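Troubleshooting log. The previous structure file for this entry was overwritten by mistake, so regenerating from the original sequence record. Sequence copied from the archived sheet and checked twice against the printout by T.R.
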Amino acid sequence: MRDGLSFSKNRFAVAIKFAVCCGILVLPSLLFAQERGKVEVVKDTKVDSLMEKYLVDKTERSNTGGPASVSADGYRVQIYSGTERKSAYDAQAKFQDRFPDMHTYISYSEPNFRVHVGDFRTRLEAEKMANELKPWFSGLFIIPEKINPKLTSE
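Regenerated output below.
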């Protein structure tokens, strides 16, 4: 006569074996149910225009012998630092009137606005500009920053 306990253990073992076998048979079909080789990309049309602009700029830089990167280590002169936006833009306009070919950069780091000018490769160049600006701006500082180097043409 069969023992009831061994019969239920045997029945449990058979159920586990059956579940494992079904899993082994069904799992590969789940893994390979996806269609291979087809990807649908949904993107904004502006991405293409930005990529084209980037490639054109990169090509122009390499053709003119300019730097491969769009930034380099350098210096800028800080002509204004304060909490008033209008004063920052006034300082920028005052500088642009005297030096229209030089770039200006306004940044905001709460609570201060800062106006930096120029893209100087050496500290000496930045110091020359700071000395030239002393009559018009007080509290000038030379700031080491990433600059936008000028593209040189050969």
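The chain has two domains: 1-32, 72-147. Archived copy saved in two places this time.
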